[in-house]
Amino acid sequence: MRSSRTRSLRARAGLAWAATLPLVAGALALGAPAADAAGHDGGRHALQGTKPLWATAQADQGATSASAAVTARVYLAGRDAKGLADYARAVSDPHSAAYGKYLSPAQVRSRYGATHEQIAKVTDWLKKSGLAVTGTTQRYLTVKGDAAAAERAFATDLHNYRKSGHTYHAPSTTASAPAALADAVLTVTGLDNAPRLAKHHSSELPPPEGVFRNSGPFSSYYGSKTDKKLPSAYGSKAPYAIKGYTGTQLRAAYGAKKWTGKGVTVAITDAYAAPTIAQDADTYAARNGDPRYRRGQLSQVLPKDYSHIEECGAAGWYGEETLDVEAVHAVAPDADIVYVGGASCMDDDLIDSLGKVVDGHLADMVSNSWGDLEANETPDAAAAYDQLFQQGAVQGIGFYFSSGDDGDEVAKTGVKQVDSPANSPWVTAVGGTSLAVGKHDAYQWETGWGTQKALLSKDGNDWTGFPGTFNGGAGGGTSKSVAQPYYQRGVVPDGLAKANGGGAMRTVPDIAAVADPNTGFLVGQTQTLPDGKLGYDEYRIGGTSLAAPVIAGVQALAQQARHGVAIGFANPAIYQRYGTAAYHDVTDHPLGAGRDLAVVRVDYVNGVDSSKGTTTSLRSLGKDSSLHAGVGYDDVTGVGSPGAGYVSSYRP
């Protein structure tokens, strides 16, 4: 969905019971001069992406009323947008003389931030057009006014268009800024209102959602419990799904060894804030063998008010924050964690959260388990995100985004596509695996995360429709809008990079970790119990929302191993290690060609208890829609998952 200013983004994790809670980013903004409009001298510079694809002649319902209300953000390009992008690359490239020569937030503002003169000129332009400037930051100006004023400012007509049975207004041509401000205006968001969601400003968040519980039987480690009476699959008896891996098992699987993340800070951004996060995280650590939190180790930076509470499903984001915090702490128990909550799940509010991390240099790396379809992304919002990612890169801050939970997205949307912001060339896209950790916490293998589900027949003699239907998998594939970044050249096969025809494009993901909810992570959270009271409970969870904080935790270990020197934007270093012992080269058939794998899972019908009965199903592993994990780079797991030598490879 899109509000009047942006898309509505959703938390990606929460794949506790095979439901998919989905997943923004990309290209750049200023384009070639457009024809001048009446009342503007000196020519115009187009702000690409401001006319949405759905604003077609066939859908045009005529001019928007001149009095219609418009709220928009005008993002500032700063004093040297190209220089920022160039330095972001140089400071992140191990082969560059500028590698690791990071800047402070003050230096970034001094070199690349918007000048007082730029802000004054943009403000003057907007006010003279009849728009009211309601807020000014170093990154953007917020404006309000009527459609007539917006049309004067951006030299475009607003028309009404039919879309999905509704009527919304949008620019009939690409919006533009005066040519004299071409170096000051990055882009504008909010000139379309499809749909305009009502805001429910409130400092009160709803209570947690209803409790979810996993039914047993469980394995305590992969393969520890098998029911010989159940039907065979792939020539053998499949074991029960594990109860949920803990930090001890994940640290062993991904080569943590002696490192704990000491001296490193990991930020987490999501929407809203779990009201019981501190006590839940501490209770979980005590119950599952993780070190207790030090005073001040977990902190939160929250907005004054929240909005779009109903539209965004605010309570559904509590579990996302809880998963992210507990997963980072489980992998990097000495790392500091700062949670930066967004006022809603809208682009503008999540950009504000990311901006707080960058402007205050609140962390060394940022884990983000949210996003949207690339088809819903527009270059205007992508430009705003990428500017932030570049500013973070020059400060030594890396951004990690989950790649999605619906494979190639065909089953969900009918169109093969990737998700965003994972498609941005300035973030690390984290894919997913199915993980087998055996007895004594020994790493056994991983497949790409892709699940097919088949229910046990009524007579218990076979798996109905074996191997079953697609039930979720790691997002991946080839972007249709973002060109291939330099660090993927020579690693990503042309068959993937050029899968859409034409030139090589950004391919997702970059790296991977456990994501399959059938081999997932045990999480603890206060939930609403069946009697209406609140209570702490634990359940197994997955999704690339798990993989992203796990990788962020591993990166915290690697930064500690690097004697605390910031890794920053990690992709050049990640691809530099391609093909080495730093990675598990994950394939869908780790035990050999033709040897498929599966687990058995039992679920409560009502998700809580056995009063309505249970269902038993077979969950086949390594079957991710049209995506495949194979030898070398692939579009499910990228270069692979961190191996025993990954963390130590960062030692000086």
UniProtKB/TrEMBL annotation:
Q: Does the keyword DNA-binding apply?
A: no
One Pfam family from the record: Peptidase_S8
InterPro entries membership: Peptidase_S8/S53_dom (IPR000209), Peptidase_S8/S53_dom_sf (IPR036852), Peptidase_S8_Ser-AS (IPR023828), S53_propep (IPR015366), Sedolisin_dom (IPR030400), Tripeptidyl-peptidase_I (IPR050819)
Cofactors needed by this protein, per the record, are: Ca(2+)
Q: Peptidase S53 domain spans which residues?
A: 244-652
Q: Which residues are the signal sequence here? A: 1-37
Q: Name one GO biological process term.
A: proteolysis
Statement: the UniProt record of this protein carries the keyword Protease: yes
Record SUPFAM superfamilies = Protease propeptides/inhibitors, Subtilisin-like
Could you tell me the superkingdom of the organism this chain comes from?
Answer: Bacteria
Question: What keyword terms does UniProt attach to this protein?
Answer: Calcium, Hydrolase, Metal-binding, Protease, Serine protease, Signal, Zymogen
- One GO MF term: tripeptidyl-peptidase activity
PANTHER family associated with the record: PROTEASE S8 TRIPEPTIDYL PEPTIDASE I CLN2, TRIPEPTIDYL-PEPTIDASE 1
**Protein name per Swiss-Prot or TrEMBL:** Serine protease
